[in-house]
Amino acid sequence: MTIYKTLIYAITLTLLSFSAIATQAQQPYALLIGVSNYRFDPLANPAKDATAIEKKLKAYNWETSLITNPTARKIKNELAKINRLRRQNKHRPVLIYYSGHGAEFNGENLLFGKDFIGDFKRGSGVVTLSDIMTTVTTGNGINFLMLDACRSNPFANYTAGVRLGLGKVDAPQNTFISYATAPGKYAYDGDSNDGSPYRKAFLNRLTETQDISSMFIKIRADVIATTNGSQVPWESTSLLETFSFKPTTSLEEELEISESFIPIIPAATPIDYERQQKIELVDFYQEKLLATIEQAPLSAFHQTEYGTHLDNHLLKEYYRQSLQGDFKQRTEVNKAWMLARIFIDGYLNPSCRANSSKLTKLDFDCRNSDEWLTFTPVYVGAFDLATYAFDNGERSDLLGEMYQNGYYVDVDLIKAYDLFYAGKSVDPYYEVNINQMAQELINGKGHNLRVDGDFGPSSCNAMMSLIGDNQICGRIPTREQFEALVKVSSNQLN
């Protein structure tokens, strides 16, 4: 009987240990961002605020990443890291905290890296709230977004389209968004000791074990009291589960086991994580595209008079079959490239002609198609997919396009040139892409070239007149010529 009890006890403890491992796999992850050292309007406390919150969360067994005074590129790199973590464990809780300047520009909420210098149109030094929302909704775990922004808005008085504060954004499913202040209002930077009123209230309430909804009601009351009603935090939530920042008990208390007992845990089977992550990357975004089709309203689908007009269910089934039939014919790497193309465009053709009898082809660049679906571009996913495709021998044109236009990354025309050129052996359009970039730069200096990708005598002469180069033009500008052209264009912008 004693042996029997011992065996049951050992089995129970082993199962509890596996439960502990499962709990540890769901360890929440927090990205803390604090930007104080702006060129245009430095702030005293954001970097301190992010550091203080990171310290407290680590004490509660959160995995954390703290970045203080980062560029926008650094912030985007950290968002990409979260994207990868979520692909490894789609249920993992994720928190993103941002402290610094924020503003609404032409209906888009913007957060600023330290490298922002006020050029809203080019988007340099800017992270959009859409970038962050795309990241937190990767996977189906619980998401938290805390925005301690809008400390001031130095551009509101002289930059058209800029509004005070951040605009209201509804939380996507299983997401909690907390704003330090109400839409269109300032958030106080606070004093040098306690930091922002929002940070102070959050840290004070973080010591209590309570559900997040109750916690933020108390935080709001605390901030209102501290600021005499001038600052009113608010939330947007669509949580599907309860959550507490502070664990209810320690692991040892929960297991109630002797420290002397060490259960035997079988060794894990070796896994090729690099290969597995690559497979998961493509599969994950294919599922995301299928979900986009399923969730799209009928108004997002275009059906012309030449096509068969289908009801909502049959129309979506048509798109699903086209997508799945097409991808069966592609390699994993080519599939990644195709998905990146679709996510950059926010545009999907099931075929070039709606009455096609075989639903086995996607036509991503058929501009006279009868059918198409439009949706919001997913630049985070596009960048991951395009990078994976390029690293594994596919065309580099999509990465070049993203650097050319500032999709998810900062605009970098030289890098775009290098990427277009790197794909010359597999991309028949690499010359067109480079020449169109050059023609657009030339036109920006007052010329009126046709941007057709053909770098003929008129394009060549116009370029030479700008950069003072007397060399003969080739089929494309040389890298040195293009660098000089970018420099001339940048001088005009500055």
Q: Which structural traits does this protein have?
A:
494 residues; alpha/beta; Rossmann fold; 3 domains; six-stranded mixed beta sheet; four-stranded antiparallel beta sheet; 16 helices; Caspase-like_dom_sf; signal; Caspase-related_regulators; Pept_C14_caspase
Précis, in short:
The chain is an alpha/beta fold. Helix content is 44%, strand content 11%. Residues 29-243 form the Peptidase C14 caspase domain.
Question: How would you describe the overall organization of this protein?
Answer:
The chain has 494 residues and is α/β, with parallel strands linked by helices. The protein has 3 domains: 2-237, Rossmann fold (3-Layer(aba) Sandwich), CATH 3.40.50; 273-380, no CATH class; 395-493, no CATH class. It contains 16 helices and 13 strands. The chain has helices at 2-25, 46-59, 72-88, 129-136, 197-206, 212-226, 251-255, 273-295, 312-327, 332-345, 379-391, 397-405, 413-422, 430-443, 457-467, 479-493, and strands at residues 29-34, 63-68, 94-99, 102-105, 108-112, 126-128, 143-148, 162-163, 175-179, 234-237, 301-303, 347-348, 371-374. Strands 2-1-3-7-9-10 form a 6-stranded mixed sheet, with helices on both faces. β1, α2 and β2 (63-68) form a beta-alpha-beta unit. The N and C termini lie far apart (85 Å). Mean pLDDT is 77; it is low at 1-25, 249-276, 352-360 and 364-368.
From the helix content, strand content and strand pairing, which structural class follows? alpha/beta
Strand content: 5-15%
CATH T-level fold name of the largest domain: Rossmann fold
Can you give the mean pLDDT?
77
